[in-house]
Design brief:
302 residues, alpha+beta, five-stranded mixed beta sheet, extended
């Protein structure tokens, strides 16, 4: 990247912070490190900010301020440790400022308040809008809750994230084991482990006093077979939304009708994941076809 002026870099850092991106961090050796311009721009682009170079930050900040003025409420509101959420509601200054706030909790309960019954403080806005700082009268259990603001014909939705600032303390010491799922074999030459063997480990561990099992991520990955790439790292998944189908207990899938004779042995210390996928995927594809042919059972998995 070409030489960047100090002013452009300050604007880039201010833009990043306004999007919730930290521009500095403390390294393991205690030194303070600063994100490079290229890194900040790449992160901002992932956050859908139109920026290609530090000099674009001034325009991008102006665009961001304009978009926020046009947004009734921010998309995410964070509330810590059960404290009542505080949100900013932006409405045209010419309106009567009457609005309603509706929250549907994660458990399905709905709560509704009118602005006249809430603690509302009108703060400075621009020529067209007024910003209302609204404190809800109560907090919420940890979780994700849906919020809706209704102001006449205008409405907007947001997510309330209620979270603890610290994890709860453990009253007593506990212990457990760590083992990758694929490494769990009943015998030295048996098939690679699956969720059933992980369950068996837990059932063995509990009577001995163990309460924790740690394992590697079991997310979907590039296992590769045929012409597909193979990247078996559990920390580089295809998706963090889906589990790895190779860890399914094939004997627990009704659509396989017991046709799970084909297995891949794993003698010694090495595991051939593409070979495992080549054997198990056709079985799972056949099971998926049978599942789609059973509408009632298929609906249970939607």
């Amino acid at each position: 990247m070409n030489h960047v002026s100090a002013r452009a870099r300050r604007q880039l850092h201010a833009l990043a912070r306004s999007m919730g991106v930290e521009v500095r961090w403390r390294a393991q050796d205690g030194s303070t490190q600063t994100c490079s311009d290229d890194t900040l721009i790449a992160i901002l682009q992932l956050l859908r900010v139109d920026i290609r170079r530090p000099e674009d930050a001034i325009r991008a900040r102006a665009d961001l301020r304009r978009k926020r003025r046009e947004t009734i409420v921010d998309p995410v509101v964070v509330a810590w440790d059960g404290a009542p959420p505080v949100l900013q509601v932006r409405l045209p200054a010419a309106t009567t400022h009457e609005f309603a706030v509706v929250v549907r909790t994660e458990s399905g309960e709905e709560r509704r308040w009118l602005s006249r019954d809430l603690s509302v403080r009108i703060t400075a806005g621009d020529d067209d809008n007024a910003c209302h700082t609204v404190a809800l009268p109560q907090g919420f259990e940890p979780g994700h809750h849906r919020l809706r603001v209704e102001a006449g014909a205008r409405h907007a939705s947001a997510t309330i994230i209620a979270a603890p600032s610290r994890l709860p303390a453990v009253d007593a010491r506990t212990w457990g084991v760590f083992a990758p799922v694929y490494a769990l074999h009943e015998h030295a030459d048996s098939a690679p482990g699956d969720l059933a063997t992980l369950d068996s480990l837990g059932r063995w561990l509990h009577p001995h006093g163990g309460t924790v099992i740690g394992t590697l991520p079991i997310l979907a990955m590039f296992v590769g077979h045929g012409k597909e790439p193979c990247d078996p790292s559990p920390y580089a998944p295809v998706s963090r939304r889906y589990w790895n189908e190779l860890y399914l207990d094939l004997h627990a899938v009704p659509e396989l009708d017991g046709s799970t004779e084909a297995t891949v042995r794993a003698p010694g210390r090495m595991l051939d994941l593409p070979a495992v996928a080549a054997v198990r995927r056709p079985l799972l594809d056949a099971a998926a076809d049978r599942l789609r042919a059973r509408p009632i059972r298929c609906a249970e998995h939607e």
